[in-house]
Amino acid sequence: MKVAEYKGYTIEFHENTGEFSITTVNGSYATYAAVKTKIDKVVKAEVKGNFPIDVVTSGFKKGTITSYNAEEKKAWVSVVSEGRQKNSLTDYAGNPRFYKASEVNLKLADEYKTLSDQITELNKRQRNLTTQLTEPITFEP
DSSP E strands: which ranges in 50-114? Predict the structure, then answer.
């Protein structure tokens, strides 16, 4: 039974053997083992956890992990401030990207946001001071 066609290849499933095959101009190739291995990896990689998990990201943003794939080492995360969900690696260069949304971590995230807001305000004040400079020196007549 033809299942699909992809990039010129016909993918078929043989009910009598339970195998998939790919048909090309050069013949047919059994792919059951490769497909089975991939499906087994995906199923094994799906972590059945207590989702959702509230987290604080390494960028001090509050979010929620909704699922995790162990094979890809990626989690689906909804970040509150971004208002969207994204698929993200769970670590970067060996450093964790997500931390439990504990009372301590939530306070740190709030403090980080406060400091970021203060930095933004100070940058605005610096730019404002630049516009107040008077008596520029020019060398043109």
Answer: 53-57, 62-69, 74-79, 84-89, 91-92, 95-96, 98-100
Distance CA 13, CA 40 (A): 18
3-state secondary structure of 15: coil
Rounded Cα distance, 124 and 1, in Å: 67
For residue 99, the cross-strand partners are 56
Q: Using CA of residue 31, residue 36, residue 37, residue 42, what is the dihedral sign? A: positive
Asked if 21 and 1 touch (Cβ cutoff 8 Å), the reply is: no
- Contact between 44 and 71 under an 8 Å Cβ cutoff? The reply is yes
Share of the chain above pLDDT 70, in %: 82
Angle at 49 between CA 47 and CA 50, to 5 degrees: 160
What is the C-alpha separation between 47 and 73, in angstroms, rounded?
11
Domain ranges of the chain: 2-45, 46-130
In this predicted model, what pLDDT tens digit does every residue of 1-31 receive, in sequence order?
Answer: 888 877 777 778 777 777 777 776 676 666 6
What's the CA gap between 80 and 39, in Å, rounded?
33
